Backbone:
């Protein structure tokens, strides 16, 4: 039986640490601020944004959600971002993705001041991560690294396989594992014989977005399995990319869905908002 990696509990502990840091800043009259730009009415985005607002409020981050109609033009949205780039009230800017089709997401990410890019998606921050000088880091893989740390999971010299190569999860995950001296394989939809590749892994991170795709044939006995997936099954229930019931008996550690990676993502977002604030305010004192 695997040890469960309890993301919910770890997230609460880390949020408490961040809250203490915020209290210390408040004594000096510094109040970290996060602005979230939400375009249109995407129901999943509405939920994510509500959750972010709730956690920000709980730990003492000053947060605001700016809502725009789905008809806003790219130029208008960039103008809004430029306004918040200049603001001293907000130290972090997050544009909730996805955006409507007529807006080019790359143009939007490039418009955000890299110093305020709390999501770590700006190419400058991605480049910094690649070059070994990270500043802000995509929150989901960053949260997963915190899980390895908290559960004393060694990475150096281990074989890590990451399934999924998105810019927001898979690729930065691979970079972080490499920086931690793991030997990393990045797998994706064109990978041949995926179960054979995956079952080489000591550390298996799955981020593909297909419910219960990873069965026990993908997993080496004793492997650490991290499930990033968030999918709805036919009954509308939230399920991961990993068939938990089948994999849990053979893994050494495993994350549940829900209660695994999800709560860590939001937690790292808050931590990075505070860090951005500290860099913007304290470094200029
Ligand atoms: P994405 O941009 O859609 O990327 C999916 C990746 O999976 C792609 O690289 C794709 O390969 C690969 N893939 C798809 N089908 C595959 C298959 N049959 N075999 C092997 N690889 C396959 O997704 P994402 O944004 O990274 O998100 C992945 C999942 O994580 C989703 O369920 C999402 O909801 C979830 N997620 C959760 C959190 C959280 O906080 N828990 C945060 C972010 C995302 P190609 O590149 O070859 O197409």
Residues:
């Amino acid at each position: 039986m695997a040890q469960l990696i309890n993301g919910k509990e770890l997230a609460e502990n880390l949020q408490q640490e961040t809250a203490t840091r915020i209290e210390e800043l408040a004594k000096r009259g510094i109040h970290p601020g996060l602005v979230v730009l939400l375009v249109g009415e995407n129901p999943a985005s509405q939920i994510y944004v509500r959750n972010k607002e709730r956690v920000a409020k709980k730990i003492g981050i000053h947060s605001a959600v700016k809502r725009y109609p789905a008809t806003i033009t790219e130029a208008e949205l960039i103008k809004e971002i430029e306004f918040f780039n200049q603001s001293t009230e907000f130290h972090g800017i997050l544009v909730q993705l996805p955006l409507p089709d007529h807006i080019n997401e790359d143009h939007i990410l490039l418009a955000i001041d890299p110093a305020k890019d709390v999501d770590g998606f700006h190419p400058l921050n991605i480049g910094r991560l690649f070059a070994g000088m990270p500043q802000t880091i995509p929150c989901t893989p960053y949260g997963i690294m915190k899980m390895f740390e908290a559960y004393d999971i060694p990475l150096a010299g281990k074989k890590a396989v990451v399934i999924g190569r998105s810019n927001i999860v898979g690729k930065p995950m691979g970079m972080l594992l490499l920086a931690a001296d793991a030997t990393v394989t990045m797998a994706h939809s064109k990978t041949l014989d995926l179960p054979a590749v995956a079952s080489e892994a000591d550390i298996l991170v799955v981020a593909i977005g297909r419910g219960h795709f990873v069965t026990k044939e993908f997993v080496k006995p004793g492997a650490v399995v991290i499930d990033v997936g968030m999918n709805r099954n036919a009954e509308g229930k939230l399920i991961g990319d990993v068939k938990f019931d089948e994999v849990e008996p053979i893994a050494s550690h495993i994350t549940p869905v829900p209660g695994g990676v999800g709560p860590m993502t939001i937690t790292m977002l808050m931590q990075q908002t505070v860090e951005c604030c500290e860099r913007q305010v304290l470094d200029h004192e």
